[in-house]
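## Example pair
The file below holds two records. Each record gives the amino-acid sequence first, followed by its C-alpha cell line.
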Amino acid sequence: MNHILVTGAAGFIGFHVSARLLAQGHQVTGIDNLNRHYDVGLKRDRLAELQKYSAFQFHEGDITDVACLSNLFSQNSCQKVIHLAAEVGVRNSLLKPLEYVQSNVLGFVNLLEQCRLKKIEHVVYASSSSVYGANRKIPYSTHDAVDHPVSLYAATKRADELIAHSYSHLYDLPTTGLRFFTVYGPWGRPDMAVYLFTKAILEGTPIKVFNHGDLKRDFTFVDDIVNGVLGVLEQIPVRNEGETNFTADEMELSTVAPYRLYNIGNHQPVGIARLIDVIEQRVGKTAIRENYPMQPGDVLETYADISDLQRATGFSPSTSIEQGIDRFVTWYLDYHSTGK
C-alpha cells in the first residue's frame, strides 16, 4: 500500500479522495488550512470522518508557507501527492485576486519544489474546466488551445498546468493534471449550485438563476471523479520520445515530458433549468426562481471530451443527474437533521 499526501484534505473532493484511499488500505497524510471560504464546521466534520481511520494523519497548515511544507515532507515519507488545495470558484476570484494567485500559483510552486526535492513518484493535481474560457468548440478537448481565460480563477489554473509541465520537463517529475467539470455530491461545497438550490427550495427562499437558466454544465458526481483520480494515480507518466498515436493536430500539442493532462467530467451537460427541476422532484417542493443576467467570468456551456482519460484508464462515469441528486439530497437531509 502507498503513503499518499492529499492537499486540501478537508475540502469536498479532497475528503472523498482521502476516504476512498483509506478504505483501500493506503496511508494518507492530509493538509488543509481550514480557511473560511465557506463553513469551517463542514470541513471539520469531514475531517472527523477521516480521523476514524488510524492510517490518516492531518496537519493544519498552508501550502503557501514554505517552512510548513518543508517540515511536512521531512516528517512524512509519502510516495505520491494528490494536490487538491486551492482557492476555488470563478466569482470569488473577482473579489480576491491576490489571494487566488497566492494560493493557486505560489502555493503550487512551493508544493512542486518539495516534490522535486523529495523525488515524489507522481503528482496528480486539480485543474479546472474553466481554463477553456471563451472557447467556442464543444465538447472541450485537452488538445484545444486554451489561451483566452475569462476569469482570474481560470488563469491561475492554466498557470498551474504550464508550471507543472516545466517541472516535468526540467526535473523528470511525473505530473498529471485533471480538468474537473462541475463536481457535486454528498459533503459538497455550500457555495455551489446543487447545494445552494437544494437549501433554497427546502427553505422556501428564492434561487438566483443566471442568464435566465440558459446555461449548461457538465455536472459530475463525486464518486465518478474519485474513480478517475485514483485511476490516473497509478498511471505514472514517463518520457515518450516516439509517440505515434496522435493525429497531426494533436501532435502539435503533445509533449515528451512525463506530463499528462486530462478532462474529467460526465460527458453529459445538463441545463440549469433542468437541474432545478430534478431537485424539485426529489424534495417535493417548487423553487422560487429569480432570473438574473449572465455573470462576469461565466460561460454558457461546459462539456467534457473524456476520450483521452477513457483510453488511458478506462474511466466511465455512470451516475445520472437523477441518481446523483437523489444521493446528495439524502445526505443533505441527514446531515442537517442533526442541527448542523
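Second record, same layout:
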Amino acid sequence: MELFTLLLTILAVGICLYYFALSKVSHFKRLKIPHIRPIPFFGNMAPYIFRRISLPEIISRAHNLFPEAKYIGFYDLTRPVYLIRDPELINSIAIKNFDNFCDHRNFVDDSEPMASKNLFGLRGDHWREMRKLLTPAFTSSKMKMMFGLMCECADNFTNFIVKESGKIGKTYNMKEMLCRYTNDVVATCAFGISVDSFKNPNNEFFSLGKNTFNFDGRLSLMFFIHSHFPFLTKLFKLRMFSPKVEKFFKDIVCSTVEIRDEKGIVRPDMIQLMMESRKNDQGLKIDIEEMTAQAFVFFFGGFDTVSTAMCFLVHEVATKSDVQNRLREEIDQVVKQTNGKPTYEAINSMKYLDAVLNETLRLYPVAGFLDRLCVKEFVLPPATSGGKSITLKPGDGIWISTYALHHDPNYYPQPNKFDPDRFLNNEVYNSVYVPFGLGPRLCIGNRFALLKMKIMLFHLLWHCDLELDAKTKNPITLDKWSFVTMMEGICWLKLRARKSKNL
C-alpha cells in the first residue's frame, strides 16, 4: 500500500509539473501572436539543448517561419521572448525608442562584480555614464595611436609563421594562432604590457585567456545555467569565472594604475580614461573593482570573439583563391605605395579588404542575436494584419536575429554565398547589417576589432600563402555547443612563406 501511495504521489507531482510548465509556454497563444508550438520545460530550445543545431540557426529558423509577421513569439525554455523581424520596428526599438529598451538582460548577478559591473552588464544611468567615459578610448585618433602596436603584434605573428613553415608550409590550428595574436594586441593596447605569445606561448596572459574564454566548452554552459537557473548557481556556488581569474585582472589593473601614478605614464587606453576620472569632482566615480570589470570585458571581447571572427575570415580567404589573389593585389599595391611601411590611412582606405571583412561578418556574425530588455511600457504594432497591438511591460525580453537578417534573401541575393562585391556595389542596407549591434548599445570596441582584423589579414597575406589542408573542413558548419556563432571543430589551414612578394 505504501508503494502504491508513493507511485500515486509521484504521478500527481509529475502531472502538476507538466501543467505548470504548460502554463508557462502559453503566453503567445493567449496573445494570438505567431509562434512555434513549444515543448514543456524546453520551449523552443530543445534542438540546442540536445545539440542538434546551433543556437543562431535555431533562432534564425523561427525568424524565417513567419515571413509576413513583424515579430513572433519564441520560448527561451519557459521564458517568452519577442523576436522582432521587421527592420523598421527593429530601428524603432533599438534607436528611436532606445530609452524604453536601454538594458541587456544580464547573465550574472552582483555576486560576481567583474562579470556583472562591466559595460555590457551595467544598466540605466550608470551604463550611460560609463559609456560616455569610455567612448573616447575608441575614437579614430586613439586607433591611430594603437596602430603601430598592433602592427608589431602582426609582425611577430607573420615572422613566426614564415620562419617555422618556410617554403614547404605547415598546417596550423588557426584558432590558437589567432588567439595568440589577439592576446598580444589586447595586452599591449589595453594594459601597456608587451607580450609575444609566439615566442612565449605559455605566458600568463595567453594561458589564462585560453583556459577561461572559450565559448565551445564550460563557458557556454555557465552562461546557460546562470541565465536560466540562477537558483542553482547560488545553491551550488557556481561562478562564471574563478577567483583566480578575478585576482589576476585585479592585480594587473592595480599594478598598472600604481606604476602610471608613480611614474606619470600616460597611454591612449581605457585604463587611462578611468584613472583620469578620479580627478574630476563631477561625474562617475570609479573604484578599482569597476576598473577591473571594464578591463576584463575588453580582454574578454578582444580575445575570443575577435579570434572567432578571424577564423571565419582566414577560412573564407583560403578557400576562395580568387578572393585571396584579389586581396593580395590590393595589399601589394599599398606596400609599394608606402615603400614597405603601410600606414594607418593606407590600410583603412583599402576598399576590397573592407569588403572581405564586412562580408565575413555578414555571413558569420559572432553575436547571432541581439537582446534588449524592456524598461518602460511600449506598444508594439500588430504582429500581422488583422492582429492587435501588444503592450510590452518592464522586464519583457526582446531578441533580434542578426544571423537571420544577414541571411535573408530579401536583403541579400544568394545570402549563403561569400560575395564581397556586394559591399562594393551598394547592395547592402545598413538597417539589416548589424554585426556589432545597433543604436547606443552598439559594441564600443567595434573600431578596435575591425582594425585588429584588417592588420592581421594584411600582414598575413603580405608574407604568407593560405592553403587548404586535408584536415580543413569545407564547407563550414556551426558549433552546436557554443552560445555564439562559432565554427564547429578546429580551423585547420596550411600556411607557407610567399613564393614571391612585393617588398
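Notes on the second record: Strands lie at 71-76, 79-84, 170-173, 370-373, 378-380, 390-392, 397-400, 464-467, 492-497. The chain has 20 helices and nine strands.
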